[in-house]
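FAQ: What does the model actually see?

It sees only this:
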Amino acid sequence: MILSNELAHLLVSELDVGHTTTEWNESEWNDGVVYPNLEVVYSEQVDTTRWSLVHKRVYKDLDTGKYWSTSYRTGATECQDERPYEYDGDNIEFTEVVPRETVVIKYVEVRK
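And it is asked to produce this:
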């Protein structure tokens, strides 16, 4: 899936996990714009660099049932003014992914 940089930035800025663009399409202030029917199903900071925080997002396309992943960066401090997808060009390519359940083993302290 390829979306405009503007739309990809809007998705990151306006939607949290569990929210959908369906509300945008049904809004009386929509002005005729048709957004893809997407739901945010996962959002996490996955890495850091010296100046940026790296985030990963997964969206579910509510029309097709497919899942799409993207990553973006934001400034690590108030002095680094970097917005999502700022240096990524006019179009943002999302990668198709599938949900897969995994088992994670964690080691916790034994309380006495």
